[in-house]
Design goal:
The complex is a heterodimer of chains A (450) and B (541). Chain A is built from 17 helices and 14 strands. Chain A has 450 residues and is α/β, with parallel strands linked by helices. The longest helix of chain A has 23 residues. Chain B is of the alpha/beta class and 541 residues long. Among the domains of chain B are: 124 residues, Rossmann fold (3-Layer(aba) Sandwich), CATH 3.40.50.1980; 166 residues, Rossmann fold (3-Layer(aba) Sandwich), CATH 3.40.50.1980. Classes of the chains: A alpha/beta (450), B alpha/beta (541). Strand 1 of chain A pairs antiparallel with strand 3 of chain B.
Chain lengths: 450, 541
């Protein structure tokens, strides 16, 4: 299916530099820096903050009319100097915007000049540059671009060691904490990149912080090239854009690709690989989690079986949710993304063998108007995706389960758990309860016992 | 509560700038002023933020599309550029609207974008823009379509105004107009306000001469219906028998703008964002303007009285007094209960281009003192009053924003009052065409700080330990990490309305809950643990 219209109405994607800023927030002592107008930093900050409910500082080179005409070199250098002096970062993550990309600033050259002419007595932070023009791709592309740029800049080779790289994709801080716990319980030394589990979900300060605590430490990112393996939770990212792909090509670190481990089947694959890599059996607690999840599937089955859902969001999230929904007996009648890697349909067909038989529609590069038109045809029981589906949910009275990003109409979006047995359990409970709540609210009898 | 000993403001100022290198200290020193309401010292404002200093300011597009045009429900706002800008301005400002019935037009819930791709940056995006306009027209048949240019558009040379003209002529019954509000223009969102004023004045105001009736006809300028403020103001005006012809732009329609030149008075809430419109309408149509403030119960009463005074009508004046007498008891009963709990508490406000001034009224009613305040995107006249306008230095950033040349309309210019009548009203205390700014209303020794930086606000909190800090979502969670509640005055923390009498009651209750919440006792503030080691030094251009 193709979108016939030209304009995008009610977009199902955000812009490229937002993803880069989020990824940079997951590196220790890093300040994200947008090379462009100050409005981009302001909008992206306010958007990330509305989801995470945490401070998000993003610097900018504050273009003016002259900068836009004559180039941003002066502003970028000035901005880097000021950020360095105020925040004393170890890393500055520089992402471009549509403005600096349109005028064609050679950021790498400007950074070289900056380093060459810098005061030798002042420490220069490490500068990572990701090219993220908003007129290409969407926020998820910026997210991956920042990580690819990070490993390209930092990773060093060397003798292989007992180390696992994990590129978890754009998951929640709760998901990241769970992944860290799992790897610890498998006694697997690891580099999780990015790790914004603390920087974007931390406690009160008690003392002043220029940059919030947490993030993947620089010295561990340096070791990425010596890892025994990389895991990345993506099935649509092209090898030449993937950080794990780079590490394999450059340093021979083998990489394993999964879709996000949502559901039992996908989580099993992840845990099996961890067993293999760690040469340890699955820790008992995860066996327990799995058993409880299977039990819950059995108990909750009667509520969700045969229901129809529309799933929307980033392509990798949509793929993982679709596989999970098939596992619990829900038919995702429509799988949609605003992203457009070109792989969405192909991967879904591989992972959901009865995709065509069930008449599951797949659309990429779509917006919420497209989704709503389809929704009218399919009459789904549920919507699964981010807060931006609310208008559609309300208008068509379809209950909605909030997952992913952005979630700005519920509290605790940053603590929503999606992945692994435990995350799936929480997600499954929420889906079942949404179905029950809807039934209860629409029942004329007013059952208190459902 | 016990009275606190506050630090000497001059010493605080020294402390705020002492770690800057001399050049920056000098620059920031001009934006940090110890107030004297008698003398009104000069404040540096509307000066470009230094790169790498994290500012709370937005861009020209935000001011144009988000602030001024965003709240009008029946204009399709089409953002020409890559997707982000349209997405980020999609219902984020929480302005409300009331369409006419369930079928009434409301495009505010939509986000339209040309979603510019690389090929458009290379080969131009005008063709796609035209198609997008046609699609929006075919889909909704709206009365108007506004095109908003984002950063790359100006650079690749797309002429949105030519496209607008072509499509306006082609479509026939749809007013299409463009805004060159690229994000890099001007110092802050303030530039976008001006651009929005200009284009709406040029392309919309004055198109509909029909008389919609009403004896006392006003336009409400610079009220954006955050949290339903406009509904409360509309309720009060209606109760008094005052007809609101147009609102710029809370809860508005394009027809209100078209018809707005039939009003007899423009009242201005947010001076910063809309004073251009007030001035241009007076020059072209002869409608005088005056500043009002519906934030705070006392100032709402005062504003209603001033409108009545302008119309010089005894019946209206009597009606206004009746309405105030009806509204005030509810306000008084709440304030009596809350006042003892809020009295003596300390507030700081760093927000907007008028809110940092207006909300001091409400804090005053709560017995709270405003220690320090400043705007994010104000100009000198918003601080010091309009008398300084002739002395404001025009820099490169301001020069780039078009000043429309406006003259009296040969057919429609009709002075509502003679100069003598206006002079008489002025003598009677009605400050026609004037805004005295924030500083005369602030205490001697309070600190006025323009475009406060992240570093300065943290330092200020440490030195004064205020009971509440008012700003926006970008500051909210930083300030709260230090154990100080932050009240969002852009979005109202999704509460409101705070305007008028009902709004004042809402605000008293919300502030009581915030400053007296037990939650803050659970958080140890940084200054309780260790002295601040904050330092910063900046480099200027």
């Amino acid at each position: 299916m193709k979108t016939a219209k030209t304009a995008t109405q009610n977009a199902c994607k955000l812009c490229n530099p937002l993803g880069a800023c989020l990824a940079f927030k997951g590196i220790e002592k890093c300040v994200p820096f947008l090379h462009g107008s100050q409005g981009c930093a302001t909008y992206i900050r306010r958007y990330l903050i509305s989801h995470f409910k945490e401070p998000v500082d993003i610097a900018s080179s504050n273009f003016n009319e002259d900068t836009a005409v004559f180039g941003g070199s002066h502003n970028l250098k000035l901005g880097l100097q000021n950020i360095t002096k105020q925040y004393k970062p170890e890393v500055i993550g520089i992402a471009t915007t549509c403005l600096s990309e349109t005028i064609g600033d050679d950021v790498d050259m400007i950074l070289r000049e900056y380093t060459e002419n810098a005061d030798p007595n002042q420490p220069i932070p490490l500068m990572i540059h990701a090219s993220t023009p908003s007129y290409q791709g969407s926020h998820i592309d910026g997210f991956h671009a920042a990580l690819r740029a990070t490993v390209e800049k930092l990773a060093e080779g060397g003798p292989k060691q007992n180390l696992l790289n994990l590129f978890p994709n754009m998951v929640s801080p709760a998901d990241l904490r769970y992944l860290k716990e799992i790897l610890e319980n498998f006694s697997l030394p690891s580099v999780i990149l990015p790790d914004y589990s603390e920087t974007l979900d931390g406690g009160p300060w008690g003392e002043y912080h220029r940059i919030p605590k947490g993030g993947t430490p620089l010295n561990t990112i340096l070791k990425c090239g010596t890892a025994a393996a990389s895991i990345e939770f993506t099935s649509i990212l092209a090898e030449d854009k993937s950080p794990a792909g780079y590490l394999e090509e450059k340093f021979g670190v083998p990489h394993y690709r999964f879709c996000l481990p949502i559901g039992i089947g996908q989580s099993d694959k992840f845990f099996e690989l961890l067993e293999r890599l760690s040469e340890k059996p699955m820790p008992e607690r995860y066996e327990d989690e799995r058993r409880r999840l299977v039990d819950a599937y059995a108990d909750g089955h009667k509520y969700v079986f045969g229901k129809k859902a529309i799933v929307y969001g980033e392509e990798d999230l949509v793929i993982a949710l679709t596989v999970f929904l098939r596992e619990i007996g829900i038919t995702p009648v429509l799988c949609v993304s605003g992203g457009k890697s070109g792989f969405l349909k192909k991967r879904l067909a591989e992972l959901v063998p009865d995709l065509d038989n069930l008449g599951i529609q797949v659309r990429d590069g779509a917006d919420f108007v497209d989704i709503e038109e389809e929704a009218k045809k399919h009459k789904p029981d549920l919507l699964i995706g981010n807060s931006k589906g609310f208008t559609m949910s309300r208008k068509n009275r379809i209950p909605m389960i909030r997952v992913g990003f952005p979630i700005h109409d519920r509290f605790g979006g940053q603590r929503l758990h999606h992945i692994g047995y435990r995350g799936t359990q929480e997600l499954f409970d929420r889906i079942v309860n949404t179905v029950i709540e809807h039934r209860q609210n629409s029942s004329p009898i007013g059952y208190t016992y459902m | 509560m016990e009275s606190r000993i506050l630090p000497d403001p001059s010493a605080v100022k020294e402390e705020l700038i002492k770690k800057y290198p001399p050049k920056v200290a000098k620059k920031r020193g001009k934006a940090i002023i110890v107030n004297d309401p008698e003398e009104i010292p000069q404040v540096q404002a509307n000066i470009r933020t230094i790169p790498g200093i994290i500012t709370q300011r937005g861009c020209s597009y935000a001011g144009c599309k988000g602030v001024v045009l965003g709240p009008t429900r029946d204009i399709v706002n089409l953002v020409h550029g890559p997707i982000g800008c349209s997405f980020y301005a999609w219902l984020t400002r929480r302005n409300q609207t009331r369409p006419d019935g369930p079928e009434g037009e409301n495009f505010m819930t939509y986000c339209f974008s040309t979603d510019m791709q690389e090929e458009h940056v290379v080969f131009g995006g005008e063709k796609k823009l035209k198609q997008a306009i046609q699609e929006a027209y075919d889909l909704f048949h709206p009365k108007a379509i506004g095109i908003f240019s984002t950063c790359p558009v100006g650079l690749i040379g797309d002429d949105v105004h030519a496209v607008a003209k072509e499509m306006r002529e082609k479509l026939g019954d749809c007013n299409v107009f463009g805004f060159s509000c690229e994000g890099y223009k001007g110092v802050s969102q303030s530039a976008g306000h001006h651009i929005a004023n200009n284009q709406v004045f040029k392309h919309v105001v004055g198109l509909d001469d029909s008389d919609k009736g009403g004896k006392f006809k006003i336009n409400m300028l610079g009220e954006y219906n955050i949290g339903g403020d406009a509904f409360e103001i509309e309720r009060l005006l209606e109760k008094c028998g005052i007809t609101m012809v147009a609102s710029f732009s809370g809860n508005s329609t394009i027809n209100q703008f078209e018809n707005s030149h039939t009003a007899d008075l423009n009242v201005v809430m947010c001076h910063r964002s809309i004073n251009y419109m007030a001035e241009m309408m007076e020059t072209k149509y002869g409608i005088p303007w005056m500043k009002v403030n519906f934030i705070g119960a006392e100032s709402s009463a005062k504003s209603l009285r001033r409108i009545a005074q302008y119309f010089e009508d005894d019946e209206l004046m009597a009606r206004v007094e009746e309405v105030i007498a009806e509204e005030m008891p509810a306000v008084s009963s709440v304030i009596e209960e809350i006042y003892p709990k809020t009295k003596g508490k300390l507030a700081m406000l760093f927000v907007g281009g008028s809110r940092a001034h207006h909300y001091q009224e409400l804090f005053g009613e709560l017995g709270m003192e405003t220690l320090s305040a400043g705007y994010e995107f104000g100009h000198r006249d918003d601080y010091e009053g309009r008398r300084v306008i002739p002395n404001i230095k025009i820099d490169a950033d301001s020069k780039n924003i078009e000043e429309l040349k406006v003259t009296a309309d040969p057919g429609k210019y009709r002075p509502r009052k003679t100069e003598e009548e206006l002079a008489k009203l002025k003598e009677a205390g009605l400050d026609i065409r004037d805004y005295e700014g924030m500083m005369p209303d602030m205490k001697k020794g309070s600190l006025v700080i323009d475009d406060i930086s992240h570093y300065e606000s943290e330092k200020l909190i440490e030195l004064y330990k205020p009971d509440i800090f008012c700003a926006g979502i970008k500051e909210k969670y930083v300030v709260q990490k230090m154990g100080v509640p932050l009240k969002q005055l852009h979005s109202y923390d999704y509460g409101g309305p705070y305007a008028g009498f009902t709004g004042a009651i809402n605000f008293y209750k919300d502030i009581d809950r915030m400053v007296n919440s037990r939650v803050w006792k659970l958080i140890q503030a940084p200054w309780e643990e260790a002295p601040s080691e904050l330092e910063a030094d900046y480099v200027t251009q």
